[in-house]
Model the fold of this input.
Amino acid sequence: MDRSRVEARLTRALSFPIAMLQGAAGSGKSFALRDALRREARAHVVFDVGPEHATLARFVQGLTDALAAHAPGARVAFGSAYDRAILSEHAGQSLAVWLHEHIKGLDLTIAIDNAHNADGASVQAFLGRLIDRPGDGLRWVLACRSCDLLPVANWLAGSRMGLPVEEDELAFEIEEIAQLARERGVALSESHARDVHERTAGWATGVAFLLQIAASGRDFDGPVRAYEPIIEKVLADCDAAALQALFSTAYLPDLSEELLTAVGGSTLALLVGGLRARAPFLFVETPTALRLHGLLRDELRARMAASGEGLAQVARDQAAAALTMERRYVDVLGLQLEGHIEGCVPILDDHGIELIEQGHADLIDAAIGRLLRDGVELPARVVALRAIVDSRLGRMDTAEAWFNQALAHAENDDARMIEIKYLYACDLLRRDRLDCVPLLRAHVDDPDITPSLRAAIQSALAEGLQLANEPEAARAAIAAAIEIERGVGDPALHARVLARAAYVFLYQDDYDAARLYAQAAAQAATAASQFTVATGAYSVLYVIAFDSEDVDAALHNLGLLLENCLKSGNLQFQFYCLACTFEIEMERNNVAAVRRIDDTLRSFDMDLGGSVSDEAFFPGDALRSAAHGDFERAYRLLHPTAMHQAGAERIAQRWSEVALYAAGAMRNLEATEALDHGLAALAECGNPSARSTRARLYFSLTLALVGRLVEAASLLEHVRNESNVPARLRVIEGGVAALCRYASGEDNYHDIAKALRAMHERECGGIARLFESLPSRLLFRREAAV
Done:
């Protein structure tokens, strides 16, 4: 229909960096907002704020989810940023500064609809500070019922915003009411249209309600300028049994057919369907769910409370039972946190591990924190959950304390004690701590544990034994775990055991077996919503692709890895994913990508001395320094990590990098020492692989730098004679060969330039830049030899 006056008003409002639509519930703000955004060519996102976004954590996480396509780094780093922000006195303002760094360069309209659903002071402080910060390409549009806590006066005074679009401007005029009636097939005389306008003052929902009444041939007297009379009329049309049935819906997070059927069978589903047909404006439909309008929900809860007959508790219990039946444990926890806090304990005890794996660690943390504040006695497994959450957020000191407390709680329950020891050992294993092995060995053959737990312990022990460099014992343990798991039939356990098998075979350099196990584990884990397990499986697939010099496959698997670690909420895996991407993009010389990753990595409050940094971040950072000619920093950064690599091939490759950087820094003694260590490790390698081939190339170049030209030529000849060398390594080989010939006395500048240009063209421009920084050192060697 033609509402050109409203369209023109919205166009004027949207010409400012900040626009606001303000009005009572049902005034048409959401419809007008989306209609205006659809008419624009400019890119936009809409964050529809629901009741679940009322807290600062949920609001900021929801906003970063909405922005994920445009600012993926913000979503990745949210957990770490929030964990730091809550330690400050002004958490909302700290988060605003953090998020602004991720979005300040965007050319984007960010619309926040139903902002009143998160009207707490901390959320409003965050939002006000975020919008206040400069961003030439950013435009903000807010739709809300009130904005008392936002700095609207400052925005108006600074001409960053025009006057808010008020509900009287969105209201229907008489002619528009008549036109709407015609479009809906409702016979409406001019006088009747005037009557509708007088009784509603053009309020959109009131107009829709009276047209619905007119279409049904019924009568309704009196003004309709707020939801209360509409709700009163709709509920008055329900008999006592129907009203009683509706009460339980006031505690449901949504009105899916499965939930309605679980609460009241097909009768309730039909009742809600009929009510929606008569009064669609009492429901909120989002892209993912249908809900009661908040005012209808509040009215139903108020009637239950006023009855004084315990109806509210009955309705809450019915909703909790239905949610439990549908395995919607997150929603059960949310419901119990509103009222019956002790009801959280059995959910946490039975399903807490599963919920953490699915990425709900923050909810687990909130529930346990609330239980502790209320003085509720926690069973041992729930205490262990707190330890796991703390560990995943990087709070290792408190994690250890909580694990010890959980073990103390379980001292009179042998089965529970063994389970908690297993969880503790898994946490130690995740941190590469070998003290997990005796914990697991102590119970691997215990006859009193279930087959599921025995398979889990065996598979974790296999991973620990591989970490402890006991490959034969690791293979035997993983074989035993697979055999036990086959008889259990638990999809989640199946995924976990396969993922651990993939890890074992990866670090025994059996890439074919590792790939098969990892692919099967990723598929099984995804189907079971075991996002942490899927993350581990994709990390194996990434390493296989990276080690095979397949850049496209490596980046593809990193994308899947990041997707799953975002769902799991595991900060350390998110950091790992970014660090690995950083290394690849450094080797490719993708400057823009490196800058984006740098910005995101700065948001992480992570220990840079851990295995993740050793494996991925430090090599990329060292390459960056060397590519800029700072070989001294590259050497100092990477040298300490050479001792911590797993397997001869990884040791040889890391020493080859250390040796090259030492030679580039004119540290002859240190370069020679690194050569000795690395060539010894290289001698222990089996059949040639991409890792060992790259190590030989770097050793060749280092030998040329220190004047050992015959040995350099011998290693290069070895590489030339290898079969199945990845094309990318052949390109790097061309650069190394040209530089080695230069070191031997050839004036092959043209060959060097051609080889380096080929490297830039074949996904290794960053390594080419490293080589470009070396000729001055090579020239020094030639002059010294003369």
